[in-house]
Design goal:
Low-confidence stretches: 131-148
Distance between the termini: 43 Å
Mean pLDDT: 77
Largest sheet: 3 strands, antiparallel
Shape: elongated
Number of helices: 5
Structural class: mainly alpha
Strand content: 5-15%
Radius of gyration: 18 Å
Helix content: 25-40%
């Protein structure tokens, strides 16, 4: 039995379908998902040591590849200044200003992460593509789930 098969079997005890996303559930398609151990550039390595080209790219946000040096450097710099504050930051203004400069019709905006809305993913991609890499779920955008 492979490492991925063992991990899948164990994961089914705690995660519906053995995975943390209905998109990745394998029950309806058969087979065992690959459990990824690490990634570098355009490649991922699974728990069994198999190397794959990552065509998924985290469904968009991984467009620069895994462990991209400029992104790691920006994340390290952001971490050194703190992860989340629950208060306004200069970076929030800078990102809003950048978005407005790129899209002048966006006169006002509120940047929050709502699970499943896609807004957080869009803002994240805008920041990465503009080489304005920051930690979106903490430093630049106050991350919370909207109360129902």
């Amino acid at each position: 039995m492979t490492q991925s098969e063992q991990l899948f079997e164990k994961s089914e005890h705690f995660l519906p379908g053995g995975v943390n996303s209905p998109v990745r559930a394998f029950r309806n398609v058969g087979g065992t998902p690959v459990f990824v151990k690490s990634g570098k550039g355009s490649h991922i390595l699974d728990e069994d040591g198999n190397d794959y080209i990552d065509y998924v790219c985290s469904y968009g946000p991984g467009i620069l590849g895994h462990a991209y040096p400029a992104v790691i450097e920006a994340v390290e710099q952001a971490c050194e200044q703190g992860l989340t504050f629950g208060a306004p930051t200069k970076k929030e203004y800078e990102i809003a200003s950048l978005i407005h400069d790129m899209m002048p019709s966006m006169e006002m905006m509120r940047m929050v992460y709502l699970k499943g809305s896609g807004i957080g993913d869009i803002v994240q991609q805008l920041c990465v593509l503009s080489c304005f890499a920051t930690i979106l779920y903490g430093w630049a955008i106050h991350s919370y789930r909207k109360q129902q």
